[in-house]
Design brief:
single chain; 146 residues; mainly alpha; 5 helices; 75% helix; transducer; membrane
């Protein structure tokens, strides 16, 4: 848990320092229901290329690392599950794994969509962007206990 917290702190802290040094435009309304780095960057009246590049780097490196760790974990789980003696036990374990994968996909797909539409999806309607951003923040924690 401490390693996960340190990773988050080390990756996210530079965003705060980088944004705090930039000048903001008079319009300071974030058109979302929460404060996201790219939404704050849209309020800046200066060149934000470095911030945007760092944001893409963080988004892809975190997603890539998580995908690698999750894949290794599931390969180990699958090796163990396939070694179970009964068919019922294997099916039950596969059902549990499938629900975990669905929850992860419910987080990562809308999250990557949100991160990428801030940068490249200038024609995506604002309501779609806000809805998917809220989806990736709210749905996975709600589905986790289920």
């Amino acid at each position: 848990g401490a390693a996960v917290m340190m990773r988050a702190l080390l990756w996210v802290s530079p965003f705060c320092f980088m944004v705090s040094r930039l000048p903001f435009c008079p319009n300071q309304v974030i058109p979302q229901s929460y404060c996201e780095h790219m939404a704050v960057l849209k309020l800046v009246c200066a060149d934000t290329r470095i911030n945007r590049a760092y944001g893409l780097f963080v988004a892809f490196s975190v997603a890539s690392f998580d995908l690698l760790v999750i894949s290794v974990s599931y390969v180990m789980i699958l090796r163990t599950v396939l070694g179970l003696p009964s068919r019922e036990a294997r099916l039950k374990a596969f059902g549990t794994c499938a629900s975990h994968i669905c929850v992860m996909l419910a987080l990562y797909i809308p999250a990557l969509f949100t991160f990428l539409t801030h940068r490249f999806g200038h024609h995506v309607p604002r309501v779609v962007h806000i809805m998917l951003a809220n989806l990736y923040l709210l749905v996975p924690p709600m589905l986790n206990p289920i």
